[in-house]
Specification:
Strand content: 5-15%
Radius of gyration: 22 Å
Oligomer: single chain
Number of strands: 2
Shape: elongated
Structural class: alpha+beta
Strand order of the largest sheet: 1-2
Length: 73
Amino acid sequence: MRRVEVPNNTPEQVRGYIEDAITLVELLEPPQDLREAVFTVAANLLSGKQILMEQPQPVDLGLLQRSDKLLRS
């Protein structure tokens, strides 16, 4: 199967990621000099979701039969 990543973030989703990242920074209470870095990491992790589209591709039955024989030997 072939997989294709599809970026799909709406403005509302982005706003949600930012709000959640702010909440995490407030909960973690990092030192003042690390707050920006913690926010950046939190926002990147929250927004890093992936939507994958899978497309079936023809299977090489000969390859499957050969690999099955190798596993049995």
